[in-house]
Amino acid sequence: AQTVTQSQPEMSVQEAETVTLSCTYDTSESNYYLFWYKQPPSRQMILVIRQEAYKQQNATENRFSVNFQKAAKSFSLKISDSQLGDTAMYFCAFMKHNAGNMLTFGGGTRLMVKP
Amino acid sequence: NAGVTQTPKFQVLKTGQSMTLQCAQDMNHNSMYWYRQDPGMGLRLIYYSASEGTTDKGEVPNGYNVSRLNKREFSLRLESAAPSQTSVYFCASRTTGVSNQPQHFGDGTRLSIL
Description:
The structure holds two protein chains of two kinds. By secondary structure, chain A is mostly beta strands. In chain A, 0% of the residues lie in helices and 53% in strands. Chain A has strands at residues 3-5, 10-14, 19-21, 24-26, 32-39, 46-52, 60-61, 64-69, 74-79, 88-96, 103-105, 109-114. In chain A, strands 2, 5, 6, 10, 11 and 12 form a six-stranded mixed β-sheet that branches. In chain B, strands 2, 4, 5, 6, 9, 10 and 11 form a seven-stranded mixed β-sheet that branches. Chain B has a four-stranded antiparallel β-sheet with strand order 1-3-8-7, with no helix packed on it. Chain B has strands at residues 4-7, 10-13, 19-25, 31-37, 43-49, 56-57, 64-68, 74-78, 87-94, 104-105, 109-113. The radius of gyration of chain B is 13 Å and the shape is globular. Chain B is mainly beta. Classes of the chains: A mainly beta, B mainly beta. Chain A binds chain B through residues 4, 9, 33, 35, 42-45, 47, 50, 52, 91, 93, 97, 99-108, and chain B through 31, 33, 40-45, 48, 50, 56, 58, 88, 90, 92, 94, 96, 99-100, 102-105, 107-108.
């Protein structure tokens, strides 16, 4: 079974600064996908960014980028130019490529962006 | 764009009561999922349906049953609710046509069992 660990329960950052959220995972699979989801106080689960394990290039989506280290089984999220609207819970998730394509989630990091 | 719709949004039950949570998606997705989220934790998979006509257990299936009614709808039933089932329940769906596609989530159902 896969496990996903987010070692930072809470973090804070000043508006306009950069913050990095950590995620590590444990798997014996070689073909898989990794995701970061954002959950604001509204409780919605919003996809932030995705990464295919077979791609060496790190994914980027505007102010969001990842540092994917496959050998180290690490998948960190960097948020640049933090905005107040980035305040949320952030979940790292692992998906094995199989018939079910189920997600395994980490415990989450609560990010507070301060004005 | 409705996406994934869950009903109800909130519900309070007494211990021992039964309840069905409804989920429908309008994206023509093959796979559907039910998760629960306990306070301060990530989501855990209860059951999933990889395609119409199939269902399988996830990480925490005890106390729940599911029905994949058709391609659009996937319901979750609590036959005899227990306080330990107090949680926020999320339904999700995903296409299987493209390998890197994410799951799309509904807005959740907050369920309290007294």
